[in-house]
Each structure stands twice: as C-alpha cells, then as structure tokens.
Amino acid sequence: MRSAFDFSPLYRSTVGFDRLFDLLDQSSQIDSMTNWPPYNIEKAGEDQYVITMAVAGFSTDEIEITQKENQLLIAGQKKVSEEGRQYLHRGIATRAFRQTFNLADHVKVTGASLENGLLTIELKREVPEALKPRRIEIATGDKAQPQQIEHSKAA
C-alpha cells in the first residue's frame, strides 16, 4: 500500500530539486495499466542501461519510440485488421500500449531492436566534458598566476 507524502517542508530548504519531488509525486499516482506490456530495466555497465519490453505480435512499424528531453515514450498500435478471424482463445494481447520512462539528465537512446517479440532499447549516460568534475590547482605564494586545470573522469 502506498501513502502520499507531503514534500512541502523539503521545498523550503532545497533549491533545484523540484523535478525530483514532482517525480516522487507522480510515482504515487501511476495507474495499474502501466504493467503492460511487461518490461525489464537492466544496468549493463557503468553508464549503460537496457530496457527490454515483451511486445509479441507487434512489428517495427507498429511501435514508436520517442525521446523528448528527459522522457522516453514507447507506444504501440496494431494496424492489421482482424476481420474474419474467430478466436477460440486469445492469450496474446494486441491492445495498444503507451509506456513512459523518466530519464536522468544526459541519458540518451543509443539503439533499439525488435527480435523474437522482445523490444530492446539501449541507453547511455553521456555527461558533457564541461560538466565533468575537474581538478583545480591551488596557487602558492611563488605561483601567483593561475595554473592549467585538468579534467578527471566522472565519478
């Protein structure tokens, strides 16, 4: 059972975390339809992720993947008309779906493939060089001029 949290005290003592609090608020309002189609989110490396979604019965032209800013939208809509078919049992769902994932800053889609009914979306976090941590030299009395600043690997 989920309960709603009041983040208003945190708004008074933090700056720039609005998006985080909005995500937490939204997570309590997610409806139960987001569990279809089933999917996995996997960490494949230091800055690499893979989303695998079971979309049996859908072809590549019936699935649309869109990334807008920090949001990844995956939507599927069947285009084939099934007139004249009579099912005795229908266990393969072909209903339309719409799944949204909120991505961290600098996470980009690097590839997508559909094989054996599994849609695989590869993601990678690519932090721009200007935003990576950097080492700053401290000048001493005999070195009054600024020193060259070295960039180090992201933490």
UniProtKB/TrEMBL annotation:
Full protein name: Hsp20 family protein
Signal peptide coordinates: none
UniProt-listed PANTHER family: PTHR47062, SMALL HEAT SHOCK PROTEIN IBPA (PTHR47062:SF1)
Cited Gene3D superfamilies: 2.60.40.790
Family: Belongs to the small heat shock protein (HSP20) family.
Keyword annotations of the record: Stress response
One of the Pfam families matching this protein, by short name: HSP20
PROSITE patterns according to UniProt: SHSP (PS01031)
CDD domains with a match to the protein in the record: ACD_IbpA-B_like (cd06470)
Domain SHSP: residue ranges: 30-141
InterPro entries the record matches: A-crystallin/Hsp20_dom (IPR002068), ACD_IbpA/B (IPR037913), HSP20-like_chaperone (IPR008978)
